[in-house]
Design goal:
The protein is built from six helices and six strands; from the N terminus they run ααβααβαβαβββ. The chain has 189 residues and is of the alpha+beta class.
Length: 189
Amino acid sequence: MGTSQDRIRFLRDLRSVRRYTDRPVPAEVVDDLLNVARWTGSSANRQPWELVVVESPATRRALAEAGGSPGHAPLVDAPLVIAVVLDSPAAGFDGGRLCERVLLAASAHGLGASLVGFKDGAEAAAKAVLGVPADRVMPRVVVAGYPADAGARLVSVERTVDNRLPLERLPVGRKPLARFVHRERYGPA
């Protein structure tokens, strides 16, 4: 299992990957990701989720089009999409926990993964593509696949932007701890 530092490094080094090869994700890996989701903790052990596994290129393309972004590379290019369907908007925190666990499990299998959210009316259109009932919420999907190249996982330590990302100039890197950690009380020391 490695040292605690190995485990911390694994957690710290998780990166959103948005460029993939077309290599399919093996069924046993998909099953492992789903079992990690199954065992994810939730408030009062409600397990307020259902998952829709999407591997069809046509369905992935339809989801991208529903999101208002037909060229949205992660949805179109990732060989695996797992839609997270929640029983209510109040389950958002638990849904986020589940997504993070699936991202970590994907990384443990050598996959790259990221989250794709649906804004404004796009969620209803995406739910229609997958046949998700109107009374459920589907705020995000996990997209996963084998990284396109070695650079697909790289993120600068410095807080800048990366023009290699498929959509727009997205911020990369990490803020220094001093910019967001407060001790004993919020505000400057």
